[in-house]
Amino acid sequence: MPQLNPSPWLFIMLTSWLTYALIIQPKVLSFVTTNPPSSKTSPAPSTTPWDWPWT
């Protein structure tokens, strides 16, 4: 059963995980978002009732 042999894929999996965790992730996290969240409160929605024509 070749899928139980960790030799061919374990090294590739660990290498790709470490590459992502140590190299790619800090580069992605260093970007500044183009639309940062603001502390403004959103306006309250209008609560006027709808006038149905058939009532």
UniProtKB/TrEMBL annotation:
Compartments in which it is found: Mitochondrion membrane
Compositional bias of kind Low complexity: 35-49
InterPro entries given in the database record: ATP8_metazoa, ATPase_protein_8
GO BP: any one term: proton motive force-driven ATP synthesis
GO function terms (MF aspect): proton transmembrane transporter activity
Topology within the bilayer: Single-pass membrane protein
Family statement: Belongs to the ATPase protein 8 family.
Protein name per its UniProtKB record: ATP synthase complex subunit 8
Species, as recorded: Peucedramus taeniatus (Olive warbler)
Species classification: Eukaryota, Metazoa, Chordata, Craniata, Vertebrata
Primary gene name: ATP8
